[in-house]
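Marked as duplicate of an earlier ticket. Keeping the data here for the record.
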Amino acid sequence: MYSSDRRKMRQPFIDTWTKGKKGETLTPIEQMLFDVIRDHPEYHSILDQPEFALEADWPPEMGVSNPFLHMSMHLSLREMVQTDRPPGIRQVFGELQLKQGDPLDAEHEMIDCLGEALWQAQQNGQPPDESSLMDCLRDKLKR
């Protein structure tokens, strides 16, 4: 699913949303993606406008969140929790879920840490530091 072509990266979201709304059979990864999309009704109208969705910009300096980045981070977190990679993330998610009272709210707490880990990795030209990610997540539990 990695590409530098923005349209190619966004198309699976649109295709999955369209398939899922029609009740068509989804692959396991599509089901996971459809669940993320379903959990974000604020993005449904964007995905219902494919050409707009494929071309739009959401610059952070304008104070807007890129819906594709946001949903991709949810997808990444769900996969990380499912595989418990890095080790311990499943337990931290469970504890955050209890603290927040909702799995989506717990993921939103975790997104901050994932975003920081990805930004640091990009700055350093290295893979994300799993230890720093887990430290950040554990700090969230202490607050």
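See parent ticket for discussion. Residues 103-124 form the longest helix (22 residues).
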